[in-house]
Amino acid sequence: QQPVQSPQAVILREGEDAVINCSSSKALYSVHWYRQKHGEAPVFLMILLKGGEQKGHDKISASFNEKKQQSSLYLTASQLSYSGTYFCGTEAGANNLFFGTGTRLTVIP
Amino acid sequence: EADIYQTPRYLVIGTGKKITLECSQTMGHDKMYWYQQDPGMELHLIHYSYGVNSTEKGDLSSESTVSRIRTEHFPLTLESARPSHTSQYLCASGGQGASGYTFGSGTRLTVV
Q1: Are the C-beta atoms of residues A86 and A42 closer than 8 Å to each other?
Q2: Which residues neighbour A71 within 8 Å (Cβ) at sequence distance 6 or greater?
Q3: B61-95 pLDDT, tens digit each
Q4: What integer best gives the mean pLDDT of chain A?
């Protein structure tokens, strides 16, 4: 039930954009996105509850394609503070969240 | 301030010892969860609870047990610790409606 994320790792220079993808083999009820910095707990970024939904705040946004059972996280004009590991979490009707394999994002000056 | 607390933050313990990892939240959430995470790896659900006296095992088989006698408290117990239990244990609550999960700071457990 674990979703698959791509890419596994990405290095960006400040100001560059990135896209992180999350795919599931099961029909999804919702998709969560979290960021975890080294040695810290995951922090909730946003949740998408229905197909076609798009959300965002600051320069981080996400979309949810229900039919394709996938979601994408978009980071625009990246900042140093964006560095960390990004996890998607998917709910496939069981009301429990299964986390993806993670994408390690490093932003360099 | 509403939050979720885990203690201890770090624990080094000998093989065969019994340990309890504490988790408490002040947000009044019914749903609580325990995840296991090895360094740099994904999070695996080991236990969850939807309310008082409700506990279930997650997708990752674990020799630990949990209890939920009070809404705010969700401790995890290992009856006999082994080196294979060495990992980080993260407690979380929430997940109702449009809200995400709030995670505790985690307990980094080392069994020697």
Answers
A1: no
A2: A21, A22, A28, A31, A33, A48, A62, A63, A64, A65, A88, A90
A3: 788 999 999 999 999 999 999 999 999 999 999 97
A4: 90
3-state class of A82 per DSSP? helix
Q: What is the pLDDT of residues B17-53, one digit of tens each?
A: 999 999 999 999 999 999 999 988 999 999 999 999 9
Determine the residue type at B25: Q
- Token readout for A50 is 């229905």
Instruction: Compute the distance between CA of residue B86 and CA of residue B69 in angstroms, rounded to an integer.
Output: 27
Q: Which residue matches tokens 């080094």?
A: B12
pLDDT of residue B2: 66
Q: Which residue, among B90, B52, B12, B92, has the nearest Cα to A32 in the 3D structure?
A: B92
Cβ separation of B40 and A32 shorter than 8 Å?
no
Please judge whether A99 and B42 are an interchain contact, meaning their C-beta atoms are less than 8 angstroms apart: yes
Phi, psi (degrees; rounded to nearest 5) at B77:
-125, 135
Contacts of B93 in chain A (CB under 8 A): none
B45 to each of A59, B17, B25, B96, how far by Cα in Å? 30, 23, 18, 17
- A97 interfacial to chain B (CB closer than 8 Å): yes
| Count of H-run helices and E-run strands, chain B | 0, 11
Query: A60 by DSSP, 3-state: which?
Result: strand
The residue type of A12 is L
H-type alpha helices, B1-112: none
